[in-house]
Design a protein that fits this description.
Strand content: 15-25%
Shape: globular
Number of strands: 11
Radius of gyration: 20 Å
Helix content: 40-55%
Number of domains: 3
Strand order of the largest sheet: 4-3-2-1-5-6-7
Bound molecules: nicotinamide-adenine-dinucleotide, magnesium ion
CATH architecture of the largest domain: 3-Layer(aba) Sandwich
Amino acid sequence: MKRLSILGSTGSIGTQTLEIIKENPSEFVVEALAANSNIDLLEAQVREFKPRITAIRDETKYKELKKRIGGMTQLTAGLEGITDAAVAENCDTVVSAIVGIAGLVPTYNAIKAGKNIALANKETLVAAGRIITKEVKKNKVRMLPVDSEHSAIFQSIGSNSRNAISKIILTASGGPFRTKTMEELEAVTVQDALKHPNWSMGRKITIDSATLMNKGLEVIEARWLFDVMPEAIEVCVHPQSIVHSAVEFVDGTVIAQLGLPDMKIPIQYALTYPERLAMGGKKLSLTSIVELNFYKPDTEKFKCLRLAFRALEMGDSACVVLNGSNEEAVRLFLDGKISFLDIGNLIERTLDKHKIIKDLSIDDVADLDRWSRETLNNLYKVGCCS
Ligand code: NAD
Ligand code: MG
């Protein structure tokens, strides 16, 4: 039996993880749950899964939640509470599914406490890939990808050695605006951007998918997860989201992983590896696929993808700035304050202002994240958008 702590249990990944647990009650036990502020859903989850520890990030919600479920679980709050859930004594695997940089410190603490990680929170590796991968090695824990592309790459690599890999081919759906012109992109709304063609996900990653920043973040995630240089990572737009990614080997062989777009498959594999558990639902039928298309991404139109490669080339601290400024720009866009194209423009100007810092500590990452958000907000306030 695996004993799990689920950080971000009320989100898209968190709730799908709990569905898997519900379908396989003899495989998993929930040790801890942690979420930001949705106490109605968190209460229902506590009643159903009976975690030993429950954490609520928003401290103003603590009293009310305590009233509802106080006797059923050890309830904690704030960042400290989230950390309690991340390092819960009897838990062996932490599902890192908080959105954004908020997931970094809990994941870092979980690794230090010797927990295996099922990683959905890509921002952790974008902002602190070098620090995190070092801690994973030092603490001899396993970090497995939940992100569908990285799960595909992990499965395609299989037992091949690192030296046998010549290229990682990261597929991208292209998002809802793949075929739009630059002029059309100027006019898209928040509602348009929230309509992803193939996946149903949280709001932040859905906007990231529309700008292709999600693919940029995934390039950085792949760089750290698989120890490959950016030059060996190729992004390929594949609108059907059937080929979830592929690996090219030195002898010219390409191995890919295919499946219907369903996040429960990579989530479950990260929890059961090296075993596979049966899963219900529709299966991929190759003969019913009408066509599979692959294109080069347009990085003029989707500048965010280009900026991610630029940040990788600049150095680790630039990736912190890319991530922090992106989170802030996405927030401004969702609040209706900036246009879709301003997201990339503001991130670019924030990166322009950054001077590389070497040998980052986890505290430096937090400081730099703050700087990026402030800088982006200042640029916005002085009207430095388009
Ligand atoms: P979501 O917005 O649906 O859920 C986020 C979860 O994090 C919620 O439970 C929320 O309560 C919690 N949370 C937010 N801020 C928090 C804080 N400060 N402290 C504690 N908890 C906090 O997001 P999601 O779509 O589930 O994505 C989660 C992560 O997984 C992201 O990093 C995303 O990039 C990654 N991911 C998601 C998908 C997907 O299909 N949704 C696919 C691949 C990767
Ligand atoms: Mg992905």
